[in-house]
Amino acid sequence: MPQIRYERVLLKLSGQVLTGEKDHGISHTRVAALCSEIQEIAALGVQVGMVVGGGNIFRGLEAERAGMDRVNADYMGMLATVINALALQDHLERLGLHTRVLSAITMAEVAEPYVRRRAMRHLEKGRVVIMAAGTGNPYFTTDTAAVLRAIEIRANVLLKATKVRGVFTSDPVTDPDAVFLEKVSYLECINRGLKVMDSTAISLCMENELPIIVFNVNDRDNIKKAIMGEQVGTLIGEG
After folding, report:
1. What is the pTM of this model?
2. What is the pLDDT, as a whole number, of residue 200?
3. What is the number of domains present in the chain?
4. Could you tell me which residues are beta bridge partners of residue 79?
């Protein structure tokens, strides 16, 4: 049995990760491949909690810029995360995993209400727990929700899955001179304005000493490598 460094993890997925080669929506091929990797780490005994965004379906900030009320836009974004959570649940259960979707917004017909102790019991029983609808409050990002849930369930690490290698000094898509950072401190992320997570999320991690690993989820086995403690992406932690 390989040595596991992180026994309980919170995997944060952006909605865009689920699009695959598409511009929006859900690529079932991409979701199936992702769930296959989750199945592998769950088989090792890793307790897996997940938080997924909804930007592949609806972007609240864009709707606000178009004139929509911010609170309404944020609630629509939260509902989009529930759609993504149900898609992940379906694929995971087809692979034989036991799952639970816990929603911060009550919708008893499709998900259990999010209760911290319930989430932890599910994890202890080996179920993959997908926590949807953000924090249930407007004005908070799903990154902040992911950090909050990670702290609440006492995760050992927050795994932030992206489409790029990790953290760079600037946007590598638009800046050819962007430099990859293998390790960076919480304060450096905030002070240099590195576009990793919003400052609220980073501050919460810093206050609670929760390490973050930012990595490219499109590279097969990166999730497994991260939980084994191998060098993958960027580690954000104490300076």
Report:
1. 0.94
2. 92
3. 1
4. none
